[in-house]
Amino acid sequence: MAPPGQMAVFPSRNRLLIGSWLTSVRTRFDMTLLLILLLPILFLPAPLVLRHAPRAAVVSALLAPAIIFYLLLQLLPAVLAGQVLLFHYDWIPALGLAVSLRLDALAALFALLISGIGISVIFYAHHYFAGKPDAPRFFAMILGFMMAMLGIVLSENLLFMLVFWEMTSLISFLLIGFYGQKQISRRGARLSLFITGGGGLALLAAILLMGSIVGSFQLSDILAERALLQQHSVFPWILGLFLVGVFTKSAQFPFHLWLPHAMSAPTPVSAYLHSATMVKAGIFLMMRLYPVFSGAEVWFYWVVAIGFMTLLVGSFVAIFMHDMKGLLAYSTISHLGLITLLLGYGSEAALTVAVFHLINHALFKAPLFMMAGSIDKAAGTRDLRQINGLAWHYPWLAVLSFIPTAAMAGLPYLNGYFSKKLFIVESFQSTDSGWLAVLIPALAILGAAFSVGYAIRLFHNTFFNGKPRDIPNWPLPAISGWVYLPLACFAALCLWIGFWPEVLLHQLVQPVVQAAQGNVALTTDFSPYDLAILQQHPWLTTISMLTFAGGLAVYSARKALFAWHAALPTVDAKDIFESRMQWLIARSQQGVHLVENGSLQRYVIYLVLTALVFTSWPLWQLQQWRGELALMPVDAMSAGALILLMVMAISVAVLHRQRLIALLFTGATGLLITVGFARFSAPDLALTQFSVEVMAIFIMMLALSFLPQSSPQEKVRYRAKRDAVVATVAGIGVAVLSFAVMTRPQQSISDYFLANSVPGGGGSNVVNVILVDFRGFDTLGEIAVLAIAALAVFALTRNLRLKGHSPSAEHIDAWHGYAQPYPLILRTLARPLLPMALLVSAYIFLRGHNLPGGGFIAGLITAAALSLQYVACGIRWAQVRMLTQFRPLIGAGLLIAGLTGLGSLLFDHPFLTSWFSYFELPVIGKFELATALLFDLGVYATVVGSTMLILANMGRLMTIHGPGKEIG
After folding, report:
1. Which domain of life is it from (predicted)?
2. Residue 325 above 80 pLDDT?
3. Does residue 87 come out as left (phi exceeding 0), alpha (psi in the -120 to 50 range) or beta?
4. Closest Cα to residue 498, out of 425, 416, 420, 423?
5. Do 482 and 127 touch, CB atoms closer than 8 A?
6. How far is the C-alpha of 906 from the C-alpha of 804, rounded, in Å?
7. Per-residue pLDDT tens digits for 344-384
8. 884 Cβ partners below 8 Å, 6+ apart?
């Protein structure tokens, strides 16, 4: 049940997502939250598809945030009234992981910022990337990032939130490194990923600790257990890990270094990620878990201290930055520090100011980044020492840039003026303990003065301060008038809030503060806003004048300050990071070289010895290796014959120098194992082993084409003895382990599968029913892995050119062309065998649900039949006559298997639940129809496509390079 005054919309636990959507739409809020989350990803392919139509691409990209913004406005009255809208679906209940969404006033505010500023940034990016082919790729990435940010602010389950938290780090890595051909972009992206990714691990640890203490990862459960968490012995560790996680994302000192170096990204990225979204993710999480951590003494000291350090370092360094975006980056760091320390104060009034300034900062910082990007694109530089006097060239840009710059400085009747005033008030009221009561207000005033200084420098140097100097793009081109539209919208909002702040405060900020406090009724009322502040604190005007005077003094003394700053030793965090990374890579390579020398034998020995070490100790602890179960009777004659034949085949494979002979006897060993499976009642295993063995032989025969015909003589005899000893011990160990395990009684789920195979899965072949029904999700994952492996082989060999022997064209034609170098009998038999093999494959496929067979075995048989054409008739002959594009076949297989699983959701059943029924047809009689057949078809197509993709690419290399040259 939802708490009083809240509205909860939960699908029934036994109903799944899409089933609830189609059959149980109870209110208009049922799927709205999920739709808001998924809209960006649904529209993500559109800009890529429409990449040749720029206007259509930008319109398609704008639709997602525009619809989200509209939907949020529709839900806003309810959440501002105190309702909490919820959507819940248990994803992995055993792990406490759920698709659980929550929309309250706090989440609504951030979602409005994400979508609203997203609209302006996408519109701006259309003109920023005008004439360049990069825009569709940018739109797709920004929509993916938008979904990740919405996932963070809407998540009710903290583990679910962590998925999106890491998505922001990964997608921001791609956006910062958007110009991957530039080293500065690659380095900035790597630094960002390293710091924010490391913080994500710390946050994961904090959330796991909280969830283990509370017993739930649901946000509502964790917020309700504040006392339990704060009184727990590990609370300091939880708080420390949590702060590391949020501080890295929100660029707090000393983790702020990634943000200035992220300015190598395109300006629309900076305007979106680094002013209103990604850097605010940590701030959001601090507000979301504010009821859990606030009030703790350690919270006050750490958060206030780090916030002040970030505020002062950011504002101080910003004064000396010559790069416009660099100045704005450090300015952002400074304002993030201001919001952080307000949260550290722990009072309701400070939280109100933090929320108010968060809105103001987003509204004046995004247009400033757009201004910097427009000038950079027009002038070809962002250096404040060059771009002077631009007011005479771009007067409208100067007017529209003045308003957000003045708001950043805190000029009267602009939005930043009021939040800065309240910040100073809260600094005076934050504590009354001795020297802190003096230090905190003094540092607040100093930071405010610095912010005035860098704001004046940004505007005056850009639009006045003489004439332009050494502009690369001279004469300056015109800036598109459409660029001014988002700037004008932001400027209007800054003015509107500046004249009527009490509207925003009362209608939006106070409900957000109430939600951040866990829906606790507010005790502070700031309305009417400006009048109350001036009456209570008449000295604020004097302090405001002091901060402006201090900022003017800093700017007036800039030449002396620049000279002093230039004399200081320079420390580049990016260079330090790169040098440490190079050192780490070098040490890692040294460690790798100790164990990795390119020898497959050594790698196998390491794996086998590791397995022996970890299994020998528990085996040694057993008092008796044989369990209580009696042994089944064994056909000693068959077992003995198989073992003797396998020993003989293995001996020939090991001792024979001719690689082809050794390979054939290796295959013979596998075929003997197949006979053993068939003899001892494992027909499915026998068919699978046989099919895999045939394909393995084909692949290894192709690989032999690149090697000499004979193996070199072993120079060191002890290696052969060592390998024999390790192999023998490993074989005995596996046999003993299997014997010890299988002779002991165990609880097994096999009885369940045997009992439910026919009534639950509609098939008497239990193995196949397990693969395509009971454990269908595992099978889906396995064919996905197979597809990935095949695509990896394709990617690695697509442009591969092997060094060494390069035969002439005549030699290649003689070997692979139409000169018919292949055995006549094999060629004669291979062609009629193909349709026969395909018929056998179809038979094995269709009967697999009730008799040994199935899609995997049928796919291997088909692949073997096709591969035989390559071997018998040549690569070129086969490629001319059959399908050579196997990647679409892989994709079709995965798509069929996935859609089969999704189909069950439409009927209110779990993913991959199969349906079957029996029908009567004339002549044919009774037959069964099951959806598992479609899933098996997907398995079949994926296996055929993956296997043939590997073989075709290895065959292509063989065609290019010809046979290996024997070493004499």
Report:
1. Bacteria
2. yes
3. beta
4. 416
5. yes
6. 57
7. 888 888 898 899 999 999 999 999 999 998 898 888 888 88
8. 952
Contact 962, 881 (CB under 8 A): no
Q: Tokens representing 614?
A: 């970890």
Residues 6 or more apart whose CB falls under 8 angstroms from that of 558 comprise 319, 457
| 355 to 20, 110, 153: CA distances (angstroms) | 36, 10, 15
The string of DSSP codes covering 637-665 is HHHHHHHHHHHHHHHHHHH-SBHHHHHHH
pLDDT at residue 847 tops 60: yes
Is-contact 942 890, C-beta < 8 A? yes
DSSP secondary structure, 395-421, as one string? HHHHHHHHHHHHHHHT-TTSHHHHHHH
Torsion from C-alpha of 23, 29, 34, 40, nearest 10 degrees: 120
Checking DSSP bridges between strand 85-92 and strand 97-103, what pairing results, if any? antiparallel
Query: Would the pLDDT of 171 be above 90?
Result: yes
Residue 5: burial class (beta carbons within 10 Å; 0-12, 13-18, 19+): exposed
Provide the b/e sequence for 527-540 (b: ≥16 CB within 10 Å): eebbeebeeebeeb
Is residue 802 within 8 A of residue 961, CB to CB? The reply is: yes
Q: Which pLDDT belongs to residue 956? A: 66
pLDDT at residue 964 above 90?
no
Looking up tokens 């009730």 gives 850
Domain ranges of the chain: 764-968
Query: Cβ–Cβ contacts within 10 Å for residue 554, how many?
Result: 21
Q: Are 164 and 148 in contact (CB under 8 A)?
A: yes
Beta bridge partners of 89: 99
Any idea which residue has 């959330």 for tokens?
207
Tokens at residue 447, please?
């930071």
Give the long-range contacts of residues 638-646, CB within 8 A, separation 24 or more.
638/679, 639/676, 642/672, 642/675, 642/676, 642/679, 645/672, 646/672, 646/673
Angle at 168 between CA 248 and CA 408, to 5 degrees: 60
Amino acid (one-letter) located at 698: F
The arithmetic mean of pLDDT across residues 210-236, rounded, is 90
CA-to-CA distance for 125 and 136, rounded, in angstroms?
10
> Rounded to whole angstroms, how far apart are CA atoms 273 and 172?
8
Residue type, 63: L
465 secondary structure, DSSP code: S
**Vertex 43: Cα angle to 37 and 46 (nearest 5):** 165
Eight-class DSSP state of 567: H
Rounded distance between C-alpha atoms, residue 279 and residue 114, angstroms: 12
- What average pLDDT does this structure show over 146-152? 95
| Cα–Cα nearest to 554, from 409, 769, 731, 742 | 409
Backbone angles phi, psi at 85, to 5 degrees: -90, 130
- Residue 894: alpha-carbon gap to chain centroid: 21
Longest dimension (CA), the chain: 105
Peptide bond into 254 cis (omega under 30): yes
Dump the DSSP string for 577-627.
Answer: HHHHHHHHHHHHHHHHHHH-SS-HHHHHHHHHHHHHHHHHHHHHH-S-SS-
Q: How far apart are CA 35 and CA 966, in angstroms?
A: 64
Q: Cα separation of 141 and 883, whole Å?
A: 34
Q: What is the SS3 assignment for 232?
A: coil
**To 10 degrees, what angle do helices 158-176 and 135-154 make?**
160
Q: Which amino acid is at 814?
A: A
- Structure tokens belonging to residue 353: 């100011």
pLDDT at site 554:
85
Three-class secondary structure of residue 808 per DSSP: coil
